[in-house]
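To assess whether ligand presence alters the predicted conformation, the chain was also submitted together with iron/sulfur cluster. Input:
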Amino acid sequence: MQRAPVDARGASHDDERVGFVVTPEDRDWFDRCRRSWDFGARVRRNLERSVTRVPALDRIVRNALAVYYFPGMWTWSRSIVEPLVERSLHDAGFPYPAFDFVQAYARFAETVDHFTPLRVETEVDAHVLHPERSGAELAAPDGGAVLYRDRIHLFVVEETSGDDAYWLVVHRMLDDQHGWASPDQLALDERALLACWAWEHVFLVSVAGVQYNEVRVSPPEFRRERIAYTDAEKSGAARRLAIRAAQMIAAPPLGLDPTPQWEHCARCEFRAPCVALNRGEDATALLAERYRPRPPDELEPGRLGGQSWGMGRGAAPPRFGD
Ligand code: SF4
C-alpha cells in the first residue's frame, strides 16, 4: 500500500504528484557548493552549458555493456552477441579498436560472471523517507512526492545452493584520474548504497550489495569487486538522503553561498558566472549567452512506469540514449 507523503513540518498529503526530484548529482553538488547546486539542479535554475554534448567515453562503454548483458540475449551464443557489442561501440565513436576491447572483456567476463542478468540501464524513482517520522515519506511544499532518481547499470541474480541472491552491478570506468578503487572507497560509496536502498524500496526485493565492474579501456584491463552492504548501511544512507532532501526543500530556503575549493571547482560547469558574481559583476548576460535550460527528462526504456523491454529469447536489444 502506498504511504501518503508528509511534509517537513509533519502535515500529511494524499497528493501523488511528483513535487521534487533529487538525483545523485544534485545530492553531491548540494554538499559541495550550494551556488553550483542552485545553478544546475532541475528544481532550481535548471541550467546547463550551451554546447553540443558529445557522449562521454564511460557512457559509450556502459551502453555497449548493456547490449552485452541484455537479458533477452543472455542465452544466445556469444559469437552472435559480441559483434552487436562491437557495433554499439563503433557506432558511438569509441576511439579504440572495438574488436580488441570486446574480445578482452569477454575473456575476463567469462571468469567472473556467475549470475543471470535481469535488467540493464534502468531508472528507479524511490520515495524519499521523512527524516523524522518513522514510516512516512517526505512531501514537497506543494504536496507532491519527493523522489530520489538514479539509473541502475545492471541488476542480476546469483543462484547459490538453491538460494537466489540479487545484486546490482556498477560499471566503474578507470582513467588517468581514477584508478582501482580501495576497499574503503567502495564501502563508503554513498551512491551505491542509495542505489541498493532505492531498488529495495521500489521492487521490495533484498539486494545483497554491489559488484563493481572496473573497466580500463586502453589498454583493456578489468577487475570485479563484490561489496556486500548491510541493512544498517543502506538505511543509514537513506536517512542521510532524507535529511539532505528536507534541507533542499526547506522554507525559507537555505543560504546559497559558494564554497570554493579547487577540488570541486575544477569540475564545476558554472565557474565563469561564479567568478563574475564573486567580482561583484552582473552575470545575467553571461548566463543567457553561454547557458540554456536543461531539456526535460526523457522517459527511457526500462524506467518504472515507462516502456518495458522484452526479456524473452529473440528480443532485440534496445537503443540506449546518451
Ligand atoms: S566554481 Fe566553485 S565556488 Fe563557484 S559555483 Fe562552482 S563549485 Fe561553487
